[in-house]
Amino acid sequence: MIESESTLDAWKKLLKHIYDKGDNYVDEDNRKCREILNFVVTIKNPENDITKPIDLLNSFEKWRYPPLDKIANSILSPDHINSKFSYSYGPRLFNFSGQLNQLDDFVIPVLKKEWWSRKAIVNFWDNLIDSTLSKKASPGMTNILFKIIDKKKLNVTAIIRSNDMFFGWPANVYHLYVIQKYVAQKLNLAIGEIITFSFSAHIFEDQFEFIQKVID
Amino acid sequence: MGNLDHDILMLFQKEPYAELGTTDIIKVVQAEEHDRLQKIIDDKYSGLETVKQAKSQKKKLNRQLLYHLNKLVNSGLLKVSKTSPKGQKYFVLGIENGEKVYIDKHNRIRQQISKPNIPRIPLGEYETKEIAAKYEKEDWLGKVNSIFLELNMFENLRQISDTIDFCFHNINDCICLHNFESLVAEHDIEDIVRFLAKLNSKCIDFGKTVSCSITLKNIINAEKFIEIIKEIKDLDINLIFNIAKDDINTRLFENIIEQLSKNNQDLYIRNNDVSVMPYFMGRAGPYTIDQKDWKHYKNEFKDKLYGFVISQATLLLDMNKLFEQKRNLENVQKVIKKLMFVFNESNDAQRMHSRQLFPELFKLDKEKGDFLIFSRNLIRLWNYGWKNPEFDQDFLYEYLETSFKMVKEFSKYQEIVYKCSGMPTRMNIALASAYRDSVREVFTSPNFLKFKIRNISDLQKTENKKTMAIKEKLFGLLDGGDVMSFYRSGTFDTNALKNEILYILNHFKLPFFRFNFKEVRDKNITLHNFM
């Protein structure tokens, strides 16, 4: 388990932990990976530097993340950004199965009614679409749980079934922050912690060179 | 604002980047009346006087539409983008990217027409110094470059024709008609010739090209096929023959050679023993599909798509101009890096706005398909050093290999970061060679030699073998599309030409090559074997 006040520090620590202690294996795409299962990371004050990992990744100039507003929109928009994306988190969140706005019609009302509730959960995995044997892109993040702490702040915990901790985790926590802020504003709460539970937290051998630079 | 003005604008609102001719517009906004009149004209049982009246009414309909179109042009809502050689005007929305305009229908309904904001994405100093350029600058992102159509998916010629029509609105280069031999098998010679003649006419009108991809061994009726080739000799349609060594010693192939060489038509050959991917030609240069993608298409998407986009945007690079500054790897890496990041933005924009940019192309998705699923962005290289006697061929391979690895790695990483950002999307960049026509007005003159051959012994010369050996290697790096051109000169008979082609197939791993006959002196080509 990793805990840190800052997003960037949490990221560096988790990368080092997996790099030093992870188990090696080769995945279905023949890529050499290093993995730790059931890995928990807590960011205590995400607001201060939530975009720092993405900024650092962009500074390598070997790739470029989409602009932050587009990343935010991918989880805030109920429509498919366009039909040429295999899936988007936004429609799953705000228009699940074409029927349910999980945040506005469930999470926010349930927390308004009972601030202590442990039922405030959203689900990204749609069994009717994703539970199929044919290989295609499926959401990595499967659930987010919302918890109000001391009636003052809102924590979010994400369950991520398969997590590329170098490229994926920085974008995942940014997504979480965007949603956390969305709900917190509607409930008049402060931003609390972000916790990620990665069932498979892994890094790839072809990332090691860059991971070393991040850790150092 | 009247009904017709409103309907015209709503048509452009649905397709804000479309370029539509009066014929296209009338078929939609006055569909009923147009179809009624057209039916009378096409009906072979209609009386002469009836047909005459129908034609007159159709002309009146056109004039009426033009009146309204001109009104909209005067108001700035539309503008004339071009006029075809036959005098047909083409129109585009007159508003700027990102602009919104409110229109009133009968002063009651206020509706908005708008154009999505597609970023301009400058190429910086490379563009100002004419080292790099956007292919078809005005339509660089508003249209895709090339589309592949699988003819076996269509039910009839009419359906194919209609599909080609909307494809032509959405491309700035070319279309490939795959499995053309199956179309020939199912229709009369007359119908095929008429279809191709109309197609050729559309190519001229729209400034596009078409390639027919033909697998030789699948041609059922050889005589019929040769008859068609004879009939279409004046048409500017590329015929791409997919052949293996076994196909060479056939009367059919001999007759094909005879006809094409006699008519000064290029003979394009895809070598089945080296490549399974389709190759075809556009004005920008040759096109092909990634090998893995082709396999994926055949295994999973063959029945789900009527066709798909091969290439969505192209950037041109004059390597000669670049190397005038400095001929080193660092200079190449810098420009490739710049172009990669430009494509990152353009790829995002095109896919993000695909519904508004290419609404008609969604018709290519038959069933849970995706017409952009195999699409690539191309960097076409001009004067890149091959066949330039003053260019170090080792450095040629070195810089191309470096560029190839850069674009592949970048494509891979971009797909990963987009997927991780919750926006899984395709990002693929490939290198390809550029054709003279696409660079004529922008770049330096050709600085490479034509590969001329007079007979088979020219193919056997050491220096020529060396040149072709380099080309073999380059095909793997220019995997967006490349072609080996042989300029046949002197005199010959079909037997000689056949042997030359067989020699190439036996000794070189060239997936795609062409014979050009424009320099042949004696046009009296004789068949070695009579039919």
Question: Can you give a write-up of this model?
Answer:
The complex is a heterodimer of chains A (216) and B (531). The longest helix of chain A has 20 residues, at 168-187. Helices cover 37% and strands 26% of the residues of chain A. Chain A has helices at residues 7-21, 52-58, 68-76, 89-94, 103-113, 127-130, 168-187, 208-215; strands spanning 2-4, 23-26, 32-43, 121-123, 141-149, 153-160, 163-164, 190-204. In chain A, strands 1, 2, 3, 4, 5, 6, 7 and 8 form an 8-stranded mixed beta sheet that branches. Chain A has one domain (36-200): Thymidylate Synthase, Chain A (2-Layer Sandwich), CATH 3.30.572.10. Chain A is built from 8 helices and 8 strands, in the order βαββααααβαβββαβα. With 216 residues, chain A is α/β, with parallel strands linked by helices. By secondary structure, chain B is of the alpha/beta class. Chain B has 2 domains: 3-114, Arc Repressor Mutant, subunit A (Orthogonal Bundle), CATH 1.10.10; 125-520, Anaerobic Ribonucleotide-triphosphate Reductase Large Chain, CATH 3.20.70. Chain B has helices spanning 3-14, 22-29, 31-42, 48-74, 125-128, 157-170, 180-186, 189-206, 222-231, 251-262, 291-301, 319-325, 329-352, 354-357, 393-420, 436-439, 456-460, 462-477, 494-507; strands spanning 20-21, 78-83, 89-93, 100-105, 109-114, 132-134, 144-150, 171-178, 209-215, 238-243, 267-271, 279-281, 286-288, 307-318, 376-382, 429-433, 452-453, 484-490, 512-520. In chain B, the strands form 4 sheets. In chain B, strands 6, 7, 8, 9, 10, 11, 14, 15, 16, 17, 18 and 19 form a 12-stranded mixed beta sheet that branches. In chain B, strands 1-3-2 form a 3-stranded antiparallel beta sheet. In chain B, strands 4-5 form a two-stranded antiparallel ribbon. The A-B interface holds A 57, 61-66, 70-71, 74-75, 81-90, 137, 140-141, 164, 167-168, 170-172, 175 and B 337, 341, 344, 348, 351-355, 362, 370, 372, 409-410, 413-414, 416-426.
